[in-house]
Design a protein that fits this description.
This protein is mainly alpha-helical. The protein has 16 helices and two strands. InterPro entries: MFS, MFS_Efflux_Transporters, MFS_trans_sf. It is found in: Cell membrane.
Length: 387
């Protein structure tokens, strides 16, 4: 049985473990492995994204024959083992290799979200689950970043992954104790035609690429930028880093679901341009108070735009959401693959250059979404096993 609370708890734990040390990779790689932190961070992120780009569509194919329950059971078992191995890594090569193997299985768990939302009939309930998911993502970022700022000061930070391995085993035990007959969606082995999307999905995917490229190009060296310009402590630095995620949680409580019930694309244009403008402010001012205010506004725009993009896809794809979302994740990770390259290239000029580049890329994303051409109809014959 895969119930809604289990889905979101599993995603929260998975995301937290994945993001835990990422804001501090440059510092950690320099201190722990005696390597050039900035360059090795780019190598690590690129390698991880390549694995997810390849494996997410692969898991989409696997889910045509295996039930989601079976995939999750196998993945949780393997992630628990690999996290224990990761905690014992003493070299960069072992850390990288184990992390890549971990992502092979961990990438399947992210398909729990479209699996859940794609089987909901009511549009308002789809929007509700989407906003919950976005909050889970940002809450994981908040917890992992703040917790990571503490863990990074430990003598052996990687030992924390043993805790996450135990959590994975607990999730595995919970899922094993549930009954198949009580699953959210009954087994269905009949062949289904994926709905032909009625909007230009190609341009949507291109916009997704530039959207995530813009937002993620600012991240690899963000803490270094803040430290260089404002000289704050690790804890304050981490708090500024997760400020947009804090805003996502706040907006979930303040913004009514009906905001997303009508045409959502105009809202996407408005809030994405707001995000781009705030990035320009962050890269061009020296006032810490104004910088923090701009981070708050940036977080509001980021949250609303993420919700809009997911709702838009779910409306178009209906029950085929898992299939289409697997490709969305692949495109997103292509963006995440290029993001550290963009960050590394422009940061050679200055640490604030990624912020300016991010603003430009978000404007490009808005421009691509305005394109309306002949719809690219996608038909796909799939045999699903929806356990």
């Amino acid at each position: 049985m895969i119930r809604t609370p289990f889905v979101f708890l599993c995603l929260f734990i998975t995301m937290t473990s994945e993001v835990l040390l990422s804001p501090f990779y440059p510092q950690y790689f320099s201190e722990a492995f005696d390597l050039e932190g900035i360059e090795m961070t780019s190598v690590f992120i690129i390698s991880c994204r390549l694995v997810v780009i390849v494996m997410t569509p692969v898991w989409g194919v696997v889910l045509k024959k295996w039930s989601m329950r079976r995939v999750v059971l196998c993945s949780l078992f393997m992630t628990a083992i690999l996290k224990v191995i990761l905690s014992e890594s003493t070299t960069f090569s072992s850390f990288l290799t184990t992390s890549l193997l971990l992502l092979v299985f961990q990438s399947s768990l992210y398909l729990l979200y479209p699996y859940l939302v794609g089987r909901i009939e009511k549009q308002e309930e789809k929007a509700r689950k989407t906003t919950i998911y976005i909050v889970v993502v940002h809450t994981a970022i908040i917890v992992s970043s703040l917790f990571g700022s503490v863990v990074i000061s430990w003598e052996m930070p990687l030992k924390v992954y043993q805790l996450f391995a135990c959590m994975d085993l607990c999730l595995l035990a919970v899922l094993l104790r549930t009954k198949r007959s009580s699953s959210v969606v009954p087994e269905n082995n009949q062949s289904t035609h994926l709905k032909a999307v009625t909007e230009p999905i190609f341009f949507y995917m291109v916009a997704i690429f530039f959207f995530h490229l813009g937002h993620n190009a600012i991240r690899p060296y963000f803490t270094l930028f803040v430290d260089e310009r404002y000289g704050v402590s690790n804890q304050v630095n981490a708090l500024i880093y997760v400020m947009p995620s804090i805003m996502a949680v706040v907006l979930k409580l303040c913004v009514p679901i009906r905001v997303f019930s009508g045409q959502v694309i105009p809202l996407f244009y408005m809030v994405t341009i707001l995000s781009a403008f705030t990035l320009l402010i962050q890269g061009s001012i020296d006032s810490l108070s104004i910088f923090i205010m701009s981070r708050i506004l940036y977080g509001a725009g980021f949250y609303l735009s993420m919700v809009v993009l997911d709702i838009y896809l779910f409306r178009q794809s209906q029950a085929a959401a898992t299939y289409y979302y697997s490709w969305l994740i692949a495109v997103q990770n292509v963006a995440l693959l290029f993001a550290p390259l963009v960050a590394l290239t422009v940061s050679r000029a200055s640490f604030y250059a990624p912020l300016l580049s991010g603003a430009l890329l978000l404007v490009v994303a808005v421009g691509v979404m305005t394109i309306r051409n002949k719809p690219l109809e996608l038909f796909k014959q799939v045999k699903e096993n929806e356990g």
